Amino acid sequence: MLYELIGIVRPGNLAEVKEIVLTTGQLILQQKGVIRGISNWGVFLLPKAISVHQMRHQTGHYFAMRFDSSIQTQQAVRNMLALDPRMIRHSSVKLGDGKLETMSRFGAPEWSS
Length: 113
Prior knowledge:
The protein has helices spanning 14-30, 71-83, 100-105, and strands at 2-9, 34-52, 55-68, 87-95. It is an alpha+beta fold. Strands 2-3-1-4 form a 4-stranded antiparallel β-sheet, covered by helices on one side. Helix 1 (14-30) runs antiparallel to helix 2.
């Protein structure tokens, strides 16, 4: 299945973002998944202040990752990100209906700059 993950990491240290993306990518690859694209969106204001892991955040460092994996791998990624104290929020969405015809229509991720 093709998934798109959007994550928000606490701002201030780009190395933390890289480490989270690297760990997530390694987990996907270890379980025979394929990473289709990674995009660093940068630091933005959150829509509203969020309290997570006993910290209050008003800004966050956004990233996006598009990958193919099994349902179990996607659940493992969600569980890993939920336990990481550096993560503010994350959300993953299944793209397409799982058939090759519709999957081929999704090209590389296009991000407006």
